């Protein structure tokens, strides 16, 4: 039964999760502006069925054949930021098309859209 090295002393991960979470959050502070802009763009798209439909039209127009959609991150799960950015990157050309098509989307951002 006890075949682990040192009876499994170094395999207990509970104590490593919190420091790892703090390191990741500290590193993400460097990209906070970019991440929040992507988050706001996704919130805009998902805020109403009309905007979601307009975004889906842009997705079809640029020819993205991805079965998933953009998703927001969860503040308590730092790996969800990666999932949000990964999904948003796949739809980058659709967001560019939406920028030219929807004035409210352009007005959401003071400078350039993400």
Automatic annotation (TrEMBL):
SUPFAM superfamilies referenced in this protein's UniProt entry, alphabetically: Ribonuclease H-like
MF-aspect GO terms: zinc ion binding
Swiss-Prot/TrEMBL keywords: Metal-binding, Nucleus, Zinc, Zinc-finger
Localization terms from the record: Nucleus
InterPro entries reported in the protein's UniProt record: RNaseH-like_sf (IPR012337), ZnF_BED_domain_contain (IPR052035)
GO annotation, cellular component aspect: nucleus
Source domain of life: Eukaryota
Protein name per the record: Zinc finger BED domain-containing protein RICESLEEPER 2-like
Taxonomic path: Eukaryota, Viridiplantae, Streptophyta, Embryophyta, Tracheophyta
């Amino acid at each position: 039964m006890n075949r682990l090295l040192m009876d499994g002393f170094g395999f207990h991960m509970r104590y490593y999760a919190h420091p790892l979470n703090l390191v990741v959050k500290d590193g993400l502070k460097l990209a906070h502006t970019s991440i929040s802009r992507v988050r706001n763009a996704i919130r805009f798209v998902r805020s109403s069925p009309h905007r979601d439909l307009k975004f889906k039209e842009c997705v079809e127009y640029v020819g993205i054949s991805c079965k998933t959609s953009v998703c927001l991150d969860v503040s308590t799960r730092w790996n969800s930021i990666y999932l949000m950015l990964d999904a948003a990157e796949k739809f980058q050309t659709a967001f560019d098309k939406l920028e030219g098509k929807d004035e409210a989307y352009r007005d959401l951002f003071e400078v350039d859209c993400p």
